[in-house]
Design goal:
Elements (H helix, E strand, L loop, with lengths): L14 E3 L2 E3 L9 E2 L2 H7 L20 H13 L2 H12 L6 H8 L23
Antiparallel strand pairs: 1-2, 2-3
């Protein structure tokens, strides 16, 4: 709902596939490491995340960086855990700002363009 802010944790969900361990975010395509130890030791982690100043990360909110942060905030302290329990069990999520946004008319991001048919004969190719 946008009520909490989390930092990116790019090492929180490493991706492994047939090419190896992907460095560090699968959207950036920065290469692969053969082993997990190589991934951890050769990746400049400070170059990733919205806090890093990396333009490729500037507006990112991809789950692979933020789910790990939310889990860490929940389980790293009693206060974080209690806040998550409270939000899960005792909040109706009646956010007036969010409800107001639902009532606003949405303009299409990419409007559909209708192409008018012409009366000109079309060429045929043999």
């Amino acid at each position: 709902m946008g009520k909490r802010t989390y930092p990116c944790t790019p090492w929180g969900m490493p991706t492994y596939n047939t090419f190896g361990w992907q460095k560090p975010c699968y959207l950036l395509q920065d290469g692969y490491a053969e082993t997990f130890a190589e991934l951890l030791s050769t990746t400049e982690w400070s170059n990733y995340g919205t806090e890093s100043g990396n333009p490729a990360c500037a507006n990112c909110m991809v789950h692979s960086g933020y789910e790990a942060s939310a889990v860490n905030a929940t389980f790293s302290s009693l206060g974080g855990f209690l806040a998550t329990v409270k939000a899960t069990l005792f909040t109706s999520y009646r956010d007036q700002d969010a409800l107001d946004l639902l009532e606003e008319p949405a303009a299409p991001v990419h409007p559909l363009v209708q192409i008018a048919p012409t009366n000109e004969p079309q060429e045929t190719r043999a």
